[in-house]
Amino acid sequence: MVTVVSVDEYRAEIVSLLGTAPAVSLPLADCAGLVLAEDVLAGVSLPPFDNSAMDGYAVRAADVAGASQDSPVELPVGEDIPAGRVDVPELPPGTTHRIMTGAPMPPGADSVVMVERTDGGTERVRIHEAAVPGAHIRHVGEDVTKGSVALTKGTVLGPAQLGLAAAVGLDKLTVRRPLRVLVVSTGSELVVPPRELKHGQIYESNSITLASAIRALGCEAEVAMSIDDVGMFRWSVEPRLGEFDLVVTSGGVSAGAYEVVKDALTGLGVKFQKVAMQPGGPQGNGRWNGIPVVTLPGNPVSVLVSFEAFLRPAILTALGHGTVDRHRVRATLTERLRSPAGRRQFRRGYYSQRDGQVTGEVGPRGGPGSHLLAAFTQANCLIVLPEDVTEAAQGAEVDVLLF
Ligand SMILES: Nc1nc2c(c(=O)[nH]1)N[C@H]1C(S)=C(S)[C@@H](COP(=O)(O)OP(=O)(O)OC[C@H]3O[C@@H](n4cnc5c(N)ncnc54)[C@H](O)[C@@H]3O)O[C@H]1N2
Ligand code: MOO
User: Which InterPro entries does the entry link to (predicted)?
Assistant: First the structure.
């Protein structure tokens, strides 16, 4: 007898099978979308020095105290301080230095007057506005103080986070390494274009579905294919196992004859089970020569739903993400749905929410059949009908997982 496990138990099994990816140091350019494996300490303050926020004139506020549009104060211009100047001259009282945005403040100056409030002079300048001490100065450490935690372990590295890492002087970060995944499509009926189909053959599609889903999570995916022959299957995968962190197969796991994956891996550390869900019922997982293997059923919709239910959360957990679930909302069904007793059904749906509505509405896209891939392309969510629900009426509230 095949054992039946719940969706939640099976998900926990896959999460624990994949575990946590090792920490590695990678150049910043390779870290986008990855997760920090340790805190990042700031090696410098940001800004690293007091600097001007405007193009203008560095002054002592007291020197331009009475300045106005009608009665400007005229000061001699000492030096030019463009951004990047490193030998910063002091500002003697009663004078000004021309200064640019990002340039270090000269010692003695306490404010900056924007060039627009002056006549822009280079020898002498007429200043038409009084300055408040501190005006247009960006102070050292205002954003980040040297030695503080700039980014915490577990942070997902997006553009702002990577920019900050660069700004505090780092060229590498310690992150959870993306998984290297081998995707294996099995089936003697599978054909790859441009070969023409004979009656009884179909074009192979699961490998691109899985590989792109895996790559979208920031991991690497390679694809392989095997006919329904145990020897061929083992030969095409086993010698390469050491190159991968995970092998994901599709097809060959249900109840008939010619179940290549089941026949090849039973007794080698992979356990085949039925999960109480639809689609995606027949599943298997385990370790083949120590490498995690997840065997998905072959139907294209079963593949994607299984990916959503098990592999996506497990891969995200392995990569160190804190949030691994799709955003779940409640929605009102636009039509009646039926679901098999004792199984959690995941239906492809389209969710929308009108302005001002608190609860959105959701309608199915296609029927429950796990071969209806075209309907999946019209969907933006999965509708979840729990194990104890056999019928959900039009107007009923259901759970929806948004893509
Ligand atoms: N007697 C039973 N028959 C079936 C059961 C069952 O419990 N008892 N379960 C059904 C369910 S549910 C599913 S799902 C499938 C799973 O079967 P397999 O994992 O063995 O998958 P295959 O038979 O190899 O393929 C199923 C289906 O998908 C097509 N396929 C497979 N691979 C690809 C691919 N790479 N690209 C595109 N299409 C693919 C294949 O041609 C089949 O049509 O078993 C049911 N049967
Ligand atoms: O469980 Mo199968 O995966 O419905 O099509």
Answer: MoaB/Mog-like_dom_sf, MoaB/Mog_dom, MoeA-like, MoeA_C_domain_IV, MoeA_C_domain_IV_sf, MoeA_linker/N, MoeA_linker/N_sf
